[in-house]
From TrEMBL:
<dbReference type="GO" id="GO:0005739">
    <property type="term" value="C:mitochondrion"/>
</dbReference>
<dbReference type="Pfam" id="PF10609">
    <property type="entry name" value="ParA"/>
</dbReference>
<dbReference type="InterPro" id="IPR044304">
    <property type="entry name" value="NUBPL-like"/>
</dbReference>
<dbReference type="GO" id="GO:0051539">
    <property type="term" value="F:4 iron, 4 sulfur cluster binding"/>
</dbReference>
<dbReference type="InterPro" id="IPR033756">
    <property type="entry name" value="YlxH/NBP35"/>
</dbReference>
<dbReference type="GO" id="GO:0016226">
    <property type="term" value="P:iron-sulfur cluster assembly"/>
</dbReference>
<keyword id="KW-0547">Nucleotide-binding</keyword>
<dbReference type="GO" id="GO:0032981">
    <property type="term" value="P:mitochondrial respiratory chain complex I assembly"/>
</dbReference>
<protein>
    <submittedName>
        <fullName>Iron-sulfur protein NUBPL-like</fullName>
    </submittedName>
</protein>
<keyword id="KW-0067">ATP-binding</keyword>
<dbReference type="InterPro" id="IPR027417">
    <property type="entry name" value="P-loop_NTPase"/>
</dbReference>
<dbReference type="GO" id="GO:0005524">
    <property type="term" value="F:ATP binding"/>
</dbReference>
Length: 109
């Protein structure tokens, strides 16, 4: 379902010449609070989307207990728990986007 929405967005971005850095799989998995194992919630049907499957896979952002706590405290997880697995994922995503934007605009990071 959400990949169909992503496909519609991608089609619109292409029409408008808006560059697309890649694909972020958001909340299609769960990060176990006990052992940090990440497991997928849904069958991965990305292979059915000819254009999306060719995009760089930037990150998987799983559902996480650490993020759930942040919705109550209103402090971002990358601030409250910068060393957590989920924060590492967000930092990695930010890093990839930073480099993508640098290449896009020919600016040295
Ligand atoms: Zn576990």
């Amino acid at each position: 379902m959400s990949l169909q929405v992503a496909q519609r967005g991608y089609t619109m971005f292409k029409k408008l010449n808006i560059p697309v850095a890649g694909l972020v799989m958001n909340m299609n998995s769960v990060l176990c609070p006990s052992c940090n194992h990440m497991f997928e919630l849904y069958e991965n049907n990305l292979h059915q989307f000819d254009e999306l499957k060719l995009l760089p896979r930037l990150e998987n952002i799983p559902m996480s207990e650490d993020v759930k706590k942040c919705t109550h405290t209103q402090v971002p997880v990358v601030v409250s728990q910068p060393d957590s697995e989920i924060s590492k994922t967000y930092f990695s995503l930010a890093h990839k986007l930073f480099h993508y934007l640098g290449q896009l605009h020919q600016i040295q990071p």
